[in-house]
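[step 3/7] inverse_fold.run input=structure_tokens len=564
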């Protein structure tokens, strides 16, 4: 176990005895960060050095000493993941471990003598945290509350400067904690992603690309953007990555700009069948600049009919075929799309915005080997900051980069690019593959329970992170269902289903996704509970009391699952 040690001149008289006491444990490796003599120093420097090591995960624990211990404890406890306990005797040390899982022992030199140190260190080293036992559950509950406070402490300055905005964010934080989020396009980013995204990199203008900027002072910006690019290429096995698009829609526009002339034909899935606005909706610039032809899902199976798509491609001869959707619950066969594109000499764009996290984690086949261009958002299943990404073959790299800047955008959002770099690093870890597999397992289990409870699902089930429920088949509509579930704290969105006869402001369906709840740690068994609530509420749509009761159950249940 690595333990970082720090003291000031006031704590120096206790230093030797404390390090000697720690070294009686053969597993302990002490990293001595000073001070090394009695010359006056600032306690905060040593507390910060030790606490930073813990926050960064470089050491597991720390020990700090100053005259009273108070300054050291205050300073160390400002850091993420630090639980510094000021202990005068072995009893304090025992409780700090058992109840508070303390990872920094703070000793007050005025109360602790060198001959008393070993007993305190022994108590602190030997006592286990009890929060993971049935008896100690109350301690775990109390520590978990500090995690919510940690999220709010990210906004400590904002509270003073702009109480109105702070209060709204605080209320949204409480909403996140107390609801079941089934919005298929959302997720909870890690704190590390939020820190990068909220960082001072927002201050910098950096038009251009690494090594080729229009502004000075971009050395470190270049480091960040290069990391994001290299990680994106590694994560998806791509030849080229552009990490600058501000969002998924602008990533798609950049591909059109790079690959097409105005008036060229794009063959894509229409919005009402599960496609996205930026795939050629007449309300979007994509539908105004290009000639859009649409393919649909089969009326019978509600899945992609590749023969019909091939026939449509032969008929309309597109310059670009677009695969990918916002509300398609089944796996997409990218090899088939490639074949179809080749058969008519078209380029292939895959918009994997919804499934990028599944692709990264190996829970959905990758489009990268097949597509000329792959676009994505970095939020949704990929769990990064809100933003866009383009991957392409090397031969298109220059055209794509030129289309993003200066074609469509000015200065990139380097703080968001830093968040993307962190997201890609997280997605490269082996745990992310488990996460992706769990998203799909949860989605399949949710679908199975809903089917058992009598709902009709579009295509009969799911292969990915989302389930599309036909509310019209249950005598309801998407709007009514969304609003009723919302009252109970189950958040989802109304969604058109293929061949929907209701207007888009109402729709016949709801879309349920499992990426967010999986981040919070819900597993297959928990889907029974979630499906049960949904089924009860929708089967008793007039019963507002039932919704109120379930709202209470949702709050209690979700309190067990931390939001990052
Ligand atoms: N592409 C698909 C398939 C999407 O589902 C979405 C958003 O939901 C987008 C693109 C657009 O992403 P953004 O909202 O970041 O522009």
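[step 3/7] decode complete -> sequence:
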């Amino acid at each position: 176990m690595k333990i970082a040690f720090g003291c000031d001149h006031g704590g120096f008289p206790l230093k030797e005895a404390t390090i000697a006491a720690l070294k009686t444990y053969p597993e302990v490796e002490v990293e001595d960060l000073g001070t090394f003599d009695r010359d006056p120093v600032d306690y905060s420097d040593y507390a910060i050095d030790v606490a930073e090591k813990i926050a960064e995960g470089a050491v597991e624990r720390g020990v700090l000493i100053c005259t009273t211990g108070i300054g050291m404890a205050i300073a160390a406890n400002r850091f993420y993941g630090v639980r510094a306990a000021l202990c005068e005797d072995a009893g304090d040390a025992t409780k700090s471990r058992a109840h508070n899982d303390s990872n920094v022992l703070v000793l007050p030199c005025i109360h602790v003598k060198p001959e008393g140190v070993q007993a305190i260190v022994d108590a602190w080293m030997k006592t286990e945290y009890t929060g993971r036992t049935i008896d100690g559950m109350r301690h775990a509950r109390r520590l978990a509350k500090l995690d919510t406070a940690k999220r709010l402490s990210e906004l400590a300055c904002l509270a003073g400067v702009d109480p109105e905005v702070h209060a709204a964010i605080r209320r949204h934080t409480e909403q996140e904690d107390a609801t079941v989020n089934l919005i298929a396009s959302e997720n909870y980013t890690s704190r590390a992603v939020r820190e990068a995204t909220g960082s001072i990199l927002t201050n910098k203008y950096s038009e251009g690309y690494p090594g080729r900027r229009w502004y000075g002072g971009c050395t470190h910006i270049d480091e960040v953007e290069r990391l994001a690019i290299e990680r994106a290429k590694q994560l998806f096995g791509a030849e080229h990555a552009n990490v600058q698009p501000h969002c998924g829609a602008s990533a798609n526009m950049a591909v059109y700009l790079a690959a097409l002339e105005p008036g060229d034909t794009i063959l894509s899935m229409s919005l009402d069948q599960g496609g996205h606005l930026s795939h050629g909706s007449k309300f979007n610039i994509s539908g105004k600049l290009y000639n859009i032809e649409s393919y649909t899902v089969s009326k019978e199976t509600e899945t992609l009919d590749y023969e019909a798509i091939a026939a449509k491609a032969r008929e309309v001869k597109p310059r670009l075929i677009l695969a990918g959707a916002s509300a398609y619950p089944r796996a997409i066969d990218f090899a088939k799309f490639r074949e179809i594109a080749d058969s008519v000499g078209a380029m292939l764009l895959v918009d994997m915005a919804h499934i990028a996290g599944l692709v990264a984690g190996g829970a959905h086949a990758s489009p990268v080997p097949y597509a000329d261009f792959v676009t994505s958002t970095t939020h949704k299943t990929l769990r990064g900051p809100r933003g866009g990404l383009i991957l392409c073959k090397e031969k298109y790299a220059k055209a794509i980069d030129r289309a993003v800047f200066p074609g469509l955008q000015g200065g990139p959002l380097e703080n968001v690019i830093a968040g993307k770099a962190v997201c890609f690093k997280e997605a490269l870890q082996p745990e992310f593959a488990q996460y992706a597999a769990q998203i799909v397992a949860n989605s399949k289990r949710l679908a199975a329970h809903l089917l058992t409870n009598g709902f009709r699902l579009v295509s009969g089930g799911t292969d990915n992170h989302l389930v599309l429920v036909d509310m019209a088949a249950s005598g309801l509509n998407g709007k009514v269902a969304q609003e009723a579930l919302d009252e109970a704290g189950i958040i989802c969105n109304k969604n058109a289903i293929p061949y929907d006869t209701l207007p888009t402001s109402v729709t016949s369906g709801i879309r349920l996704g499992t990426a967010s709840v999986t981040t919070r740690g819900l597993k297959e068994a928990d889907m029974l509970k979630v499906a049960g609530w949904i089924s009860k509420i929708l089967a008793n749509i007039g019963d507002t009391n039932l919704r109120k009761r379930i709202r209470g159950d949702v709050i209690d249940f979700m309190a067990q699952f931390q939001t990052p």
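[step 4/7] annotate
The mean pLDDT is 96.
The chain has three domains: 2-128, 197-427, 431-558.
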